[in-house]
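Quick one, tokens below:
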């Protein structure tokens, strides 16, 4: 049986993704902060390592990094917390579960159109698009954002006043870096669209199932499917 692990699966897009994957015959490990069987807080090294150890010996065919937050306000604390969940959380989980992934596993980063590179000033955009960018350089950029916010110079440095946007810019860049590091894996970022969840709010045009279908598309790609891309509803979109 093919097995998928999904983060932030208690509600919203994570929950709907699990339901759709189960409907397609997957065994789904639905993880969340409060799950009694597969507890996973993506901001905690201890929690992530504990679950990876608990699952050692298992083979994962799909990893969906869905857990995310969109906090109100904008200051150093919001910037640090947002990046720790949406960016470093996905990195932490991916790295911990890489040894469990099957050689051609699908890795899905649940991103957002708000992470398009157009939110950055051109010189900063060029740094993210540099084909030579590796994880150390990317982590340094993410830390520089928090530092620039703390010192009141983020706008001058070319960042937007949205930690959420920057976290998804980073997640998209990590998608490209991981795809280069692991060419056999199918690693893609997905925008689910604007979806009616606790995060998206009641006015969003898309149902949770419509958004989750976009995620499931990338989770069930053919073996020769794309890698290192950014997609909505199965169609490539701009970085
Ligand atoms: N809704 C939209 O319009 C939209 C658009 C673009 C992208 N997205 C992305 O889609 C993903 C899911 O969002 P959603 O709309 O389904 O929002 P949601 O209903 O607020 O769900 C977010 C999920 O993330 C989990 N989470 C937050 N922090 C976590 C942590 N430290 N460890 C583990 N899980 C954590 C939450 O768990 P708890 O239940 O424990 O809080 C919850 O299950 C996010 O990455 C979001 O950025 C959403």
């Amino acid at each position: 049986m093919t097995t998928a692990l999904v983060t932030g699966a208690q509600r919203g897009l994570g929950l709907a993704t699990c339901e759709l994957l189960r409907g397609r015959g997957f065994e789904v490990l639905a993880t969340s902060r409060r799950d009694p069987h597969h507890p996973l807080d993506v901001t905690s090294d201890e929690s992530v390592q504990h679950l990876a150890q608990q699952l050692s010996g298992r083979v994962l065919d799909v990893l969906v990094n869905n857990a995310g937050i969109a906090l109100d306000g904008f200051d150093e604390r919001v910037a640090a917390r947002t990046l720790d969940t949406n960016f470093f959380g996905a990195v932490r989980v991916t790295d911990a579960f890489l040894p469990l992934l099957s050689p051609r596993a699908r890795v899905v980063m649940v991103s957002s159109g708000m992470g398009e590179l157009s939110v950055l000033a051109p010189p900063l955009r060029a740094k993210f698009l540099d084909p030579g960018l590796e994880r150390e350089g990317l982590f340094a950029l993410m830390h520089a954002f928090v530092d620039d916010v703390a010192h009141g110079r983020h706008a001058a440095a070319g960042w937007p006043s949205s930690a959420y946007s920057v976290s998804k810019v980073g997640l998209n860049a990590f998608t490209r870096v991981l795809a280069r590091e692991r060419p056999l894996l199918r690693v893609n970022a997905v925008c689910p669209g604007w979806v009616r969840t606790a995060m998206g709010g009641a006015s969003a045009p898309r149902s949770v199932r419509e958004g989750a279908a976009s995620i499931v598309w990338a989770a069930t790609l053919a073996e020769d499917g794309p890698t290192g891309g950014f997609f909505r509803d199965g169609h490539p979109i701009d970085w």
